[in-house]
Amino acid sequence: MTDGMLFITQLVTFQIIFSQVETLGTWGQGEMLIFIGTFSMINGISMVICFFGVVEIPNKITSGDLDLYLTKPGSPLLRLTFENVNPGSAPLLILSGLIIAYGVQVAGVELSAALILGYSVLVLLMTLLFYDVELIIRILPFFFLGTSNMQNIEANLLELNFRVPGIIYEGLFKVIFFFIVPYGIMATVPTQFITRSLTTGWLLQALGVVVFFTGFALWFWRFGLRHYKSASS
Q1: Considering the domain boundaries, does residue 129 fall inside one?
Q2: For the chain, give me the number of helices (H) and strands (E)?
Q3: Which among 25, 51, 107, 126 has most CB atoms closer than 10 A?
């Protein structure tokens, strides 16, 4: 339900914006359609593969159910991440793909195998970044009892960045949404790539953000485990 509502919100916002203007920053309707489809695709992949596992991590930490995962062989984080795969969100992937295809047509992008491959790799990397941010927020219950406010802030920031492409941000907002809570690059960078407007320098910076957040999320998880108060202790 949530992923579907975000998708509808994006489309409604798109209609409102482009009923008043022809461009948003340097982007026209085609680029914005690709952006909308890309963010929905990233969200949809997360919903199908890992979201419903990750979202339960705070409950398992506070209830002590995490003990069961720590006693089993293998990585408890992998078990928690992938234990609730949700094929019911798969239709969002189809809808997102259709929006992306339509945006490519409107933008007049001439596709090539290399362009499609590079775009697909970036979408997967940004899905990993999306997972990293989700995970970091849900590790906080290792240290704090109440994190509902943080998750509410996450939802509001996510909704904002579903509507606003990263090319709009300047100054402090760019620092926040590109490097601290990097929702601003998740759909923007793949969109820039497929429309051939992504510079090499910014591509390298975006890849650096993904590497940093992935490394930090894994370290933060291990750090949290060292502070975990087992239900049996």
Answers
A1: yes
A2: 13, 0
A3: 126
